[in-house]
Amino acid sequence: MKYQKEINQDQYDVIIIGSGIAGLVTAVNLASEGISVLVLEQHCIPGGATTMFFRKGFTFEAGGHRVSGIRNPGGVLHDLLEKIGKKVELQPVNPAYVVKSGDKILKADPDLEKYKQNVRELFPHEKENIDRYFAAMLKIIEGINYVAGQKVINPLVILSEHRLFAKYSKKSTREFMDDYFKDEEIIAFLTMLSAYTTLPLEEQSFVSYANMWAVHHLGEGMSLIKGGTKTLVNALVNYIDTHGGQVVLSKTVDKILVENKKAIGIKTTSGKEIKAQVVVSTASNEQTYLRLLDESLSSKKFIQRIKSQKQSGSLFQLFLGIREENGQGLENVTTFVMNGHTEAPHSKIYDWDLETITSNGVITVEGKENSPDGYRSVNISCLIPYHHPEYWFVTGKDKSEYCRFKDTIAEMIIENMSQYIPNLQKRIVFQNTATPLTIERYTLATEGGLQGLAHNIKQSGKTRGNINTPIKNLYQAGQYTFPGAGIITVSISGTLCAEMIMNEHFLHQKTKC
Length: 513
What we know:
single chain; alpha/beta; FAD/NAD(P)-binding domain; 3 domains; 7-stranded mixed beta sheet; globular
């Protein structure tokens, strides 16, 4: 697909900063109502964290790869694609994910009863607690769904019908799990999915864990998009470009223009000013409020809150093109691996224990269409600190030590992951790496944060961040706002943002395309 590089007009109804899924979903919803939208992206490809890249015959997902809410009516992406007449080919993921530690394996079957049986078989001595855990999770999900579906929440309904949700809504995943299990091994296996939050269980919002659990174990489950997430991204970009809007790449926004405390447009780094009735930022809070806007436009208390927010963790990513060899070690799309189960690895990881860093992670196997015949594209991601005592050994423009350090980490990952992908070293024909510095450079996410703000208790749910901002006519969407991070979640954010903009600015001015 040919992408646009030049802005065609001096004025649009809405300007959106960032072409990640949140920005594109916001733009498509607005464009479908006849609103002229300009989406500006600093990178040379659209998609934000949901991008793909091609190297020597292999295609890799840089971020999210499995999608929910896209297969069945009522799903936010399914309904959006249906509304605009676009289709993508889907492949259900079964199992939704796998957890491995040594020779122990837990398969997360999309069928909840089968998944529960798999857990029972792995931990037969915990049968009673397992049944209590599953029953509690289902009741709590009912409470989450009630809150999500109500504009006005009745506290009496919460206290009478959703007491378990009320009990744990402001607690950590650790507090919930400790009420149901004493065995650290089963806790580790059941909560490995929440590794996506990058937080230890003690800091992790239980509601965030419950939401991830529901997406993977209830409803339609997870799917791969044939051709990868770029198929979805390109479908959304194409719709915007052909319905009165533009998605323009390699255009960095320097400032959000404000007049009389109202957003009126943007200025690019080249000095070009584009006006709009509404501006939407999908950039990080730090980028939005501390760089694109003058701090004086917001209260000191608000700016201090932005500066003190905790960011999610980042990743070291190892992208491999490997020989298929009868698919050994490549049977599952997503495999969480952990070295040991009696001690949380986070403290060692943030102390730069490389053995711990490189022996815990997520193995992602791309679709067969993303590699030559007889080979597969594989991404191994490991939690790693953004901050390094020697700034990753980068000295000015000299990155030679940085590259050697990356190679050392990659070699350790290959060695440690060989127990899950046999003969891994000998099967590799291509490899590439990315660090938190890479992620930060391409996405502008603060500290290369995988999920924007950390999903701790203070920064989850309604307290995460508002779509409305302190600046009139300026809105936010994406992983730094409610409801949080993840493809389906930021799609909800973009949908809510578009609805708010339509209701507050264009309800009686535009007619549907």
